[in-house]
């Protein structure tokens, strides 16, 4: 059966498990060269203020533009990159590229947009993580407070010796931390208690069930309330419908991200979006004057 690689991506997997093992091997070796062959791309998806719907940030999402297969989504190749250790250099490449883009947009548009970058568990355990992040900031000139590293709950806090130290170090750099896919891990509350997180991203599997499953609605509501009581911000992922938006807004979620507003866009398209927004604002102030 075809394995869905996400709506943005081609479905490349058909046939038997054996075929896909072979494909996996071929892909792993392709992935090894993807970075220096310039086949990696960073896409950007806006995050909007839940009340004004104004763009307040963007998440960097990596894609691999395979010469034969077209765009391959991270849900598929990140696990391969983690298995092979390639995630360390791919992740560093994404971080540096995204910081450069964000700083360029900051220079041109001055919107103070926050940049979210995903960090793999493997990267979080690297002893030189802080140096890499510090140098990406320095090299790009991006203000540390505009960078938010997104971490998933897939790693056990106990099993990851450098995790807490690395996260505290990121805070000392002035970088923000978000817990991604909140609610899906086995240890969500433990994470929240022990890690210095500024924000929670409610996983799309809960958001999807707004209007469908009252239990998931209750979890979303309780998560927002809990985040706020702990003085954390909260973002909902996978916002696809007006109904999702209305529910999240009514329950005071701070920010929203999802196809309802915008899909992840390649760098030039994202830039165009910012340009249009700027023109729109200029137009509004023209008529006001
Ligand atoms: P994530 O960090 O939770 O990112 C959100 C995912 O949801 C993205 O998938 C995004 O395209 C998708 N999405 C956004 N809005 C909607 C919506 O309204 N409906 C639905 N159904 N989906 C939506 P994507 O880009 O395929 O990325 C998948 C995952 O891959 C990410 O989940 C993240 O865990 C990982 N990832 C992406 N880029 C990187 C990266 O540079 N480094 C690392 N380590 N992981 C990455
Ligand atoms: Mg994320
Ligand atoms: Mg997520
Ligand atoms: Mg995810």
Description:
By secondary structure, the protein is an alpha/beta fold. Helix content is 47%, strand content 19%. The chain has helices at 17-34, 74-84, 87-109, 121-124, 129-140, 163-173, 188-194, 204-207, 214-229, 242-250, 267-288, and strands at residues 40-49, 55-66, 70-72, 114-119, 147-152, 176-182, 199-202, 233-236, 255-256, 265-266. The protein has an eight-stranded mixed beta barrel, surrounded by five helices. Strand 1 and strand 2 (55-66) form a beta hairpin. The longest helix has 23 residues, at 87-109. The radius of gyration is 19 Å and the shape is globular. The N and C termini lie far apart (60 Å). Residues 180-181, 201, 203, 237 line the site of one magnesium ion.
Characteristics:
single chain; 289 residues; alpha/beta; 8-stranded mixed barrel; 10 strands; 47% helix; globular; disordered N terminus; binds ligand C2E; binds magnesium ion
What's the quick description here?
47% of the residues lie in helices and 19% in strands.
Helix count equals 11
Shape: globular
What distance separates the N and C termini? 60 Å
Radius of gyration: 19 Å
Specify the structural class: alpha/beta
User: Which percent range describes the beta-strand content?
Assistant: 15-25%
- Tell me which ligands are bound: ligand C2E, magnesium ion
User: What share of residues is helical?
Assistant: 40-55%
Could you state the order of secondary-structure elements as H and E?
Answer: HEEEHHEHHEHEHEHHEHEEH
């Amino acid at each position: 059966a075809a394995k869905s690689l996400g709506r943005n991506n081609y479905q490349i997997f058909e046939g038997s498990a054996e075929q896909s093992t072979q494909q996996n091997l071929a892909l792993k070796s392709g992935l090894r060269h993807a970075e220096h062959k310039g086949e990696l791309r960073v896409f950007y998806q806006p995050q909007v203020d839940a009340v004004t719907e104004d763009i307040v940030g963007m998440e960097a999402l990596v894609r691999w533009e395979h010469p034969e297969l077209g765009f391959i989504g991270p849900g598929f190749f990140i696990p391969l990159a983690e298995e092979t250790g390639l995630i360390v250099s791919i992740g560093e490449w994404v971080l540096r590229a995204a910081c450069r883009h964000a700083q360029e947009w900051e220079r041109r548009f001055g919107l103070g947009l926050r940049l979210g970058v995903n960090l793999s568990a493997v990267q979080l355990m690297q002893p030189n993580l802080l140096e890499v992040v510090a140098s990406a900031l320095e090299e790009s000139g991006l203000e540390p407070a505009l960078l938010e590293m997104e971490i998933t709950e897939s790693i056990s806090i106990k099993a990851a010796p450098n995790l807490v130290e690395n996260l505290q170090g990121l805070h000392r750099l002035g970088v923000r931390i978000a817990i991604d896919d909140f609610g899906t891990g086995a240890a969500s509350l433990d994470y929240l208690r022990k890690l210095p997180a500024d924000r929670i991203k409610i996983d799309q599997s809960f958001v999807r069930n707004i209007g469908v499953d009252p239990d998931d609605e209750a979890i979303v509501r309780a998560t927002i309330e809990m985040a706020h009581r702990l003085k954390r911000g909260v973002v909902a992922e996978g916002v696809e419908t007006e109904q999702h938006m209305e529910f999240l807004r009514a329950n005071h979620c701070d920010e929203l991200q999802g196809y309802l507003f915008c899909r992840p866009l390649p760098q030039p398209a994202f830039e165009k979006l910012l340009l249009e927004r700027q023109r729109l604002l200029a137009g509004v102030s023209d008529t006001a004057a």
